[in-house]
Every structure is written in structure tokens, then in C-alpha cells.
Amino acid sequence: MAFSLQRMLAELKVYARGNVRSREGFFFTLIFPIILILLFGAIFSGGGVSQVTVYVQNHDNGIASTQFLSALNGTSSDCSSSVSSGLCLKSVPADLNFSQYLSSHSASDGIVIPANFTINYSEKTPVNVTVYGDPASTTSAVVGGTVSEFVNAFNAYGVPGLAHVGVSSQTAVSSNYKYIDFLIPGLVGFAALTSPMFALVNISSTYRRDKVFKLLSLTPLTKTEWLISKIVWYIGTTVVSFILMSLVGVYVFGAHIVVNPGIAMFLVIGPFFFVSLGMLVGTISNSPESAAVVGNLVTFPMMFLSGTFFPVSSMPMYLQGIAHILPLYYMIDGLNNVMIYGNYGPALFDAGILVVLSVIVFALAVRFFRWRED
Amino acid sequence: MPAITVEGLVRNYGQLRAVDGISFSVEKGEVFSLLGPNGAGKTTTIEILEGLRQQDGGSVKVLDLDPWTKGYELHKRIGVIPQGFKFLDYPTPKEAILYYGALFDKKVDPDEMLRRVILEDAANIWFQHLSGGQKQKLGMALSLVNDPEVIFLDEPTTGLDPQARRAVWEVIRKLKNEGRTVMLTTHYLEEAEELADKVAIMDHGKIVAAGTTEEIENKYGSGQKLVVKAKEDLLKFLQENTKLKAEALPNGFLAISLRDKDDALVALGAIEESGVEWGDLTVKRDSLEDVFLRLVGPEGQSEKESA
Q1: Do B126 and A21 touch (CB under 8 A)?
Q2: Strands (E), chain B
Q3: Which of these, A14, A98, A260, A371, has the minimum number of CB atoms within 10 Å of its CB?
Q4: CB contact, 8 Å: A4 with chain B?
């Protein structure tokens, strides 16, 4: 029962031809990705972000800087509840290179408080807080504005009439991130999730009903070959979605994409995982109806909570927690890391999680998928 | 060694005993037909032989292999058309044959295969647009791609019009002439009479009769009858003057049972002697259908008619 490339390719050819000939297959492979990117690109272009994560590096150990930061952070010390300023501060150790830290965390917004802040403040020597930001980004504008406001209030609170804390700004990271930049990886992930999930849940029930699985079990084709041919097909459709969405994103909305081999890694692992998952869901359900229900229960939360339509970092903390247990999050986060920031370290971590999950789910799908007696 | 051997086969579905200890064997090159009303256990039996289902008891060998444990090996040597053959929507018959050829690693000439099943006219039509008979013929073509020694056909002509049915029969005859063993289930008695060397009649999971159609007709049928159109007076005359058994049939016919040749001569003599006006003389015997209906009873009969 060795693996046969010839059989796998024959199965792939038949399946591909069916998809090309069926209207649904054609629509979901070629038309749907374009509609998605046009629609969401148009809706969300230029939209704001509700909460902004700001990295803070405090070189000063005095009381003034602590007060300044606690004022900026409102009453809350974490980012789970709504913060008065709309900023979520995250502390960065003083001994690290701040610019590098920002870029390695795929962020552009930050504040640096100099070492002599408290002394200068008490001695009324002018001192500047440095705000890092991306001039083109809406989040950076929010951060800059909020910090300036606080500085004004802080000055007024200290010695009325004498403004001695200033704000200097610094451009962080070279790229201009826009919403559309996040939308492309999100929607590629969306396509990699939805087409294989819906198709395989559907196939696993209709093939069983029409006895096509029985028929296939009477040929030398193995379940593994069958499943791999589906994986190969959906890697293909995901690549097509990626290309179409990127072209529309770049040429219609002026998106910024770093093309690199890391992208290919996710375009392969993502469909591998979701084809296996779709088959597993279809297999463990004993009727077409329950398969559809379980399929939707698995698919819909991932569709909306994994950073498909907006970055996970802009969601409330408890939803971010949920996002981190959804496999699609790791595909989209990984694509964000490679396509936008060029951050390979975190991307490899994302890919590693997906590979482990894929191997487990694939093995379970092959194990439980019976095509003889039902 | 027979191509198929079944001994004491049992299969349950929960409380229901679908196959209840049946035994039979099929010789190589034979066309063997499993007959029975719907729900008799035919499909369960055939699916166990194909290795698609596991039996609960008894032993089964096809080409000397256990179908369940040696299915992968066996499937390279058998051809199967499941009941109500369905396939993927989009391949054409030609593409489907090439696909099967690749799966079995056999070089096939799709045009030749299509000619064999009389489907060359529909070579390039998507499966979903084929007629019922064309689909069934494609099923036969696919089952032949691996040049099988044994072919299982589960109700291959159910739902087909008479022409399509005849065409399928034609193909089955060709298969027999090529020396292949054919296992055929059907609930059309005519089909079994036309094609089968041997027949087994199944009802409620048991085999109620088996043998050649002739053997079954002789064993379970009522023998030959002389049927003649005549007035009631003839019945009276026969009863009074001969030992022949006779009964009145509808429409003024009379049936005289014939146990041997002498009975026939006596009957003809008596008819002449009676002086009753008569005509339309024929000799009839119980058909397989008559026997079938007698064996499986009215329940089977009603199911057969509704099917």
C-alpha cells in the first residue's frame, strides 16, 4: 500500500477538473477572493483603530516619570479594560535597543523617557519625551496626539505657566503600514480556511451518500493519497487567492507587501491544516446535517476572531486570548510577520505551531476516515 | 476451486439478521444470480463478498482471498458496480476511464472500453448529464478497467428502460463469453432467466431455492400443463372419465396437469372423445416468476411490484 504519485496525481486531476467545470469551484477560487478584497478594502480603508499598543522604555527611575506614565495609562495597569487614553502601554527593559525592539515586535508606536527626566523636571530644565511613530499610520497619529495632550496637562499640573516637558518625535520603522496591509494576510487566511473547510465537510457527506467512497475503496487509491491530492489542490487555490488579492491590494489600494519565501511556507501549511480539519470534521459527524453544524461551529469563530478583517492586537484582551487558541490566528499572524514586518523569528514560531497541529489533525483524519462500511 | 465460496454467512444490523447463515459457491466462468425481493439481504451479501462490509459469522472466500482482510489485494482482481451507481459529476466517460486506468496502473484505450459497453456516443458528456442507462454502462466500463476475473453487478438494470436493459444484458453476455465470473443480483426474474447459469433465491436473509433455473422450475414448479380453451363441460368430462388433474382458468381456459408423456396422450384423446368444442391448445410450464412468487410469498410479491 505504498504511496503512489501516479494515483495521487490522477485523483488531483479529476478533482481539479471538477472544480474548474463547476460554477461554485470557479467562483470560490477566482471571483470570491477579488470580491472580498475589493469589498473590505473599500469599507475599511482609512478606518481608525480603537486601542493602540504603545511600547514604553523608561530610562528614568524618578517619581516624575512614574507619575507621567501612570497618568498616561489612566487608572488601569493592564490593557484588558478600557483605558482612558485609548493607549495600552507595554514596558520595555531599559537596556534594550528600542528601535530594534519595536521592529521585532512588529510595532511602530513607542515612547522613550530619558534618564534625567525627574531631575530635569524638578530643576525645571526643559526635557523631551521621545515619541516613536510612523507618520503615515493612523495609530501613530493617535499616539502622538495623546502624548502631547498629556504633556500639556502634566506641565500645567507641575508649575503653571512654565512648560518644560516637551515632545520630540522620531520615525520608527521604515514602512508605511496601512489597514490594507493587514487585510491581505487576513483575507488570504480567510480563503485558506473557508474553501477547504466547506468543500471537505460537504464532500465527506455527499461522497458517503452517493457511495463514491465505497467505489474509491475498491480501487488501489489509498485514503492518504486521496487526502493529499485535496491538500495539493487547496494549496493551489490559496496561492491563486494570494496572488489575486495581492494584485488588487497593491494596484487598487496601494498596499505594501514584502514578497519573500516565508509567505510560501504559510500558503502550504495553512491549506494542509484546514483540509485535514475539514475531513476530520466531516468524518466524525455521522450525518450530513451534523457535519454542516460542526463545520460551521469550527469555521465561524476562526473566520472572525483570527485577525481576518482587522488586526488581533486591536481587539479587547479577552478576545485576543480566544484568538490565540484558534489555528487560523497563527497563519494570519505568520503572514503578517513575513509579509508586513519581515520578522522571521515570530513567523517560524507561528509556522511551527501550525505544522504540529497539521500533523496531528492529518493523522486523526486518516485514522477515522473510513470509506468501506459506514 | 470455485471463484466464490460462501459458508454459513451471517450479518446482523442491530436486532435485524440481514443474512442468516447462507451458503453457496460460484464456479469460475459462471454467471450466478442472487434473486430476491427488496430487503432479502442480497446487497449485504454482495458487499461482504466485495470486502465493503464485514460479516458477523461464517466464512467467505473470493478468488481464495478473505475479502475483508485481503481487500486491497482482491480489489485489483475484481470489478464492482454498486447498486445505483453514482460517480463524480464532472468527468466524462472517457476521462473517468483514464482516471481508473491511472489508479489501477493499467494502460487502457478509453474508446475501446466505451465500445465494449456500447457507450461510444456519450464519450465526452459530463457524468451528471448522462442518462440512467449511460451511467450504468459507464459503471460497467469502470469495473472492467482492471481486467477483473470476477465482476459483481448489484441490480445493474434497476430503473432502466427496456432498451437500456437489453444493452446491459448484451454486455453481461460478452463478459461471460470472455470467461469472466459474474455475480449478479436482481429482482427482475426475466433478467436472471436470460443471463444466469445458476440462480439462488433469497428471502429474509436465507436462500430458499438454488440451482439452474430449470432445476428450480422442476423442483418447485408444478410441472407442465396442457392449456386449452373449452367449455366447462370438458372439465366435467375429464373428472368423470380420466384420472387427470384439471382446473378451470379465467377466460374460459382449462389447465390439465401433465406428469408424463402418457398423460399428454390421454388428455388429447379425452378432449377429442368429449366432443366439446375446443381451441387454442398450448403446453405451459411454471416460469421462474411463478416459482419465485410461490416461494417468497405475497409480501415479496407486493414489494416486487412496487419496485
Answers
A1: yes
A2: 4-13, 16-26, 31-35, 57-62, 78-81, 150-154, 181-186, 198-203, 206-211, 224-230, 246-248, 253-258, 278-285
A3: A260
A4: yes
**Dist. CA A242–CA A259, nearest whole Å:** 11
Reported as a single tens digit per residue, the pLDDT across A321-369 is 889 999 999 999 999 889 888 888 899 999 999 999 999 999 999 988 8
Question: Which helix H or strand E contains A263, and what residues bound it?
Answer: helix A261-284
Residue of chain B with shortest Cα separation from A211:
B86
Contacts of A289 (CB under 8 A, 6+ apart): none
Q: Which residues of B touch A206 (CB under 8 A)?
A: none
DSSP B216-276: HHHHHS--EEEEEEE-HHHHHHHHHH----EEE-GGGEEEEEESSHHHHHHHHHHHHHHT-
Instruction: Tell me whether residues A214 and B52 touch, CB distance under 8 A.
Output: yes
CA trace torsion A39, A20, A221, B2 (10° rounding):
140
Cell numbers found for residue B83: 447498486
Place of cell 451511467: B135
* Cβ-Cβ contacts under 8 Å, B107 against chain A: none
ipTM of the complex: 0.80
Nearest to B50 among A210, A218, A221 (CB): A218
CA–CA dist B121, B134 (Å, integer): 10
Q: What is the β-pairing status of strands B224-230 and B278-285? A: antiparallel
Any residues with CB less than 8 A from the CB of A266 and at least 6 apart, and which?
Answer: A331, A334, A335, A338, A347, A350, A351, A354
- H or E element: which one contains A327? helix A327-336
